[in-house]
Each structure stands twice: as structure tokens, then as C-alpha cells.
């Protein structure tokens, strides 16, 4: 029998209520019922009268404790806490709007009718009045997907500005753009997800309605899907037109119309989608653009960058509600035409006034382009390896050659020395790392790859030992000292805890911050931080890693470390079996650790050179899950000569220190028993 506790005890049995509340004061202070739930299961033969049963299909268990009842209660009971299961986010929908609350509400019901809820919706509001805010407050609680409202003050038509703010608010690596006057068909989101391709953006269209028909559509018409039924719409006054094929085309006819349409696959703001990496590579939308062609200009820069449009106007359908366009002027149209002409003739890739403000050197965009090509080759190689046979041994050869070529081009582009942006200090994330003298000359390349992240941290801290750098900043290369102007901090500590420095001091000095640790010998993909934060949003209070190994057991004992497979592609999951590897960056929530994490005597005796394993052992002790998985994550690019002084070679090479250190920790803390009890 389940007795439900939320803000109050629902079970009407006063004897049960009084006993439980007397022994568990925290039951009176349960968090918001939308996100956390506490159930008490009574282990007794007879039922509790009128107790409420709960459907737990949308919840996941996070803890369970068994208690022995005393006195007149005469039963045992378990307190089980749950949190709501959030569908893994695969897409961020950025929806522009301005002072059209009635139209926007209809569009929201269109997204409520979607056949997938694996998306978040960001309302990019270009200065609407309070009516839009009030409508969102009324409607949002009725929706089953996550909604964010991004707003700025009304200073005229500034759609590109608010779209850039919407991009920065996105938590996924794939973005769909539409307008607050375009009602999507139920397969709108899922079709964009199904058709997405690396190196492409998707170009859809719309079906325009008359003003009368726009006003007549009701919530029920949208949720039921009637408004996409051609016969029903004809009965409402929709005229006959070839464009009605958008509502009816399927299968071969749909492919034929998409393939042979005379319309170019341009970026259409009401129905287009693309990868976040590509959007950031061209610096988002050009905020100089007014109404008229601003979406096309963005697509033209993507084409210049090497990301080509794919026509899907007969595959993804949205109904465009009619409205006036008072912001359209001859001056804005002409200004936009001039900007677009320059974009096409000069092959412009980077918006000078976009997400990142100011004119930046073209080498930056070039480096990003090379990295994206390197990523695509890396992904192909992984798929060839999984297929085996000719794919693994023959087809992969040109792929390996191209990967090596782009690898070298990325390194050279970073070495040529372009300006890096400054830290924004508008987040709670700290990136922490350490290094030692043999690698100090190339550390500036690592730091630049962190400064160029799609999500910029509040701080980047490099922990250095005074024993190795007695002259402090004077011992650092000029390239490193220059980065202090960008906000990078170098902190010198008296002890030399080797690789453990990157977490040891930051957890001590910044216990309330979210921390991401990285290694000192790699150029990181630009979505490293963004991807880790996305995992942490799905599974809060867990450690998150981009590169994951899986613990393997031989019976009830750990197998050798080399048999713990490294996983590049897997569904997002959170488990004690996952081991976060430092080469991909690791996210740590605030205050996840205990004091034993800082016991240097134990570290130096049992695990002096394997910080990843030391942290994993502490995670097992505290039952902290590790989250990983999702879209393919490429190996970060190794810097030349840095692997001559690599812990990885010592720990997992011929010397094989990992097994020795893990065995020592296992003997100390009985980790195999902890894992067998909690991890499987």
C-alpha cells in the first residue's frame, strides 16, 4: 500500500499521519510537487483505508530508506523519494514573437500536440507588452514540455538580437527556428530530428492562411489535428491551390516535390533547423539586419562556411497565421539587400555584429571549420570500426588521411595566434586544470580552445606548483601571461599534488560552484562545456563526462582496466558503472564530495597518479552516479609532443599503474563489494 506525501499527508489515516510526521519532520517540507515526490510504503497486511495510489511511470526513484516502526504503528515502512523523469532533450525550438499573444497561444498548442516531447521551447520575445507575459503564465503550466521566455526591451524591430539571445539560452546541440505565428503539424519536430544531417541545415516552408481562417482556428482544432486536414480546411473556406500539396503529400510524391521544387533551399526563419556548432561558427544572426531577408543572409553565411541547405518544404508543415507588418520599410529592405550583396560577393562567413560582438579575424572561423570537418571524419571512422570488415580496413583509409589533415590544420590555426574572447563572468561554472613545466609552452592552445567554447565559463583557473614555478608568472611564457587579460587566472600553491591539483584546490576554495576539469594536452571541441551542462540538466547532482568507460567485472571482482571499454556513442544514461575520463572534460556538481577526498596521505599511498580513478572511488563510496552519452563526441585533438610526458601511457601502458592503484583502493575501501551492492 502506498501512502502519498507531497506538501501534506494525503492518507486520511490520522494514526499513520501522526506517527510519520512525528518521526520525520522533513516530510512537512517537501519541495515543489512538480519535480519531487515522496512515497511511504507501509509493510503491513491490511490496507490503509482511502489511501491514494500513484502512477509512477513519469518518475524515477532517487533514494529508498527502510524504517522499523515502534509502538502502536505495528508495521515496517519504506520512505521512497522520486524525481520527475525528464525526456532527454534532443532539440531546442527557438520561436520568435512580438505582441501577438493570441497567435502565440495557438502555436503553443501546436507544440503541445507534437508526437515527441524531447524538445525545449524558447520564446524569443522582441519586446512584447505584458499581455504576452500574462498569457505565458496562464498557458505554460498546462504544457508538457519545457518553456523558456527570453525577452528584451522594445526598441524597434530587433528580431536578430533576440534570436541570438535565444540561441545562447538553448541547452541542446540542435536548434529549430520558427515564428510565433506558425502552427506546427504534429510531426513537425520529429521530422526535423529524423532528417537532420551533419554538414547540412534543413529548409522548410509554410502554408499561409487567410485572416478569417486564422481567427477561426480553436485550441481543439489544433490539438486534434483537424486544422491540417485539407477537406476540413476547404470546408472552412480555404481555396484550391497547388500549395495544398504541402498538407497532403506523402511518400514518393513528397520526395518528388521536395527534389524538383524550383524554390532554393534557403534558411527560412519560420521553418529551418541546424546544428548549434554551425550556427555559432558563423556567429549567429547579423544584428545590423532589419526586416526583410535577415534569415536568408544567415543561410548564405552558412553556405559560405560549407553548410548546405536541404529542401524539406513538403515534409515539415506549419500553418502561417495572417498578420500586418508595420515594421516593414523601404529603407530596411534596401539596407538588408546591401548587406546580403556583400555577404554573397565577399563570401562572408562571420557576422561582425552577432552573438560575439566586434570584428574578429577570419582565422578563428577557419579553425572552427577545420575542427568541424575533423569531427565528421572522426565520426565516420567510429562507424566504420563498428561495421568491421572492408569498412574497418579499406574504406577507413581515406577517412584516416583526411582526419590527420584536418587535425594538423586545426593545430596550425591555433598556433598562428588569433585573438580569443574574454570570459563573461555570467555563469556559475569554473573550468579548472593544472600542468607542469614540460607542457607549459603549449598550454595557451588549450586555454584558447576553452575561451572559444559555445558556453563561456565564469572562470578558468590554472593551478601551478610553486616548487615547479618558483618565479610564478615570470616563469610562464608570454603567450600565457597575455591570457590574463582575457580573464584566465593562474594560482600558485605550495604543494605539488601533481595531476590531483586540478580538482583539489578548486573544490576547497569554490565549494558552491559547478566545476569542470580538463586536461592540459588537448584542444577541446567547442561544445565541450555545453554538452556537459546539457547532461547535468538531465541528471542533476551527478558527475558528467563526455568520454566514458564502463566498469567490467569478472564475477564479483573488477576486471583489468584495459577491459573497461571506452564508449563513444550510447544513449544518455546515469550509472555507477560509468567512469568519466578526464580527456573529455568532467563536470562536478557543488559539494558532492566528503572530506576523505582531500586526504593526501591516502592519495599518495594508494593513488598518486590516477586522479580519475581516485575520484571514481570516492564517487562509489558516496553512491554518486556518472552520466554520459548522447550525440557523438569526437576525441579532443592531441597537441604535438605532449604525449611524450603522458600519464595515460604510464597508467594504462606497459607499466600499467591503473590496475595497481585501483587494486590498492579496492583493498582499502572494498569497492567491489560497494559496486556489487549498488552498481549493477
TrEMBL record:
GO terms for molecular function: hyaluronan synthase activity. The keyword Glycosyltransferase applies. It holds the Pfam family Glycos_transf_2. Keywords: Glycosyltransferase, Transferase. CDD domains: GT2_Chondriotin_Pol_N. Its EC number is 2.4.1.212. Residues 92-194 form the Glycosyltransferase 2-like domain. InterPro entries: Glyco_trans_2-like (IPR001173), Glycosyltransf_2 (IPR050834), Nucleotide-diphossugar_trans (IPR029044). It comes from the Bacteria. PANTHER family: GLYCOSYLTRANSFERASE, SLR2126 PROTEIN. This is Glycosyltransferase. It comes from Bacteroides faecis. The gene is hyaD.
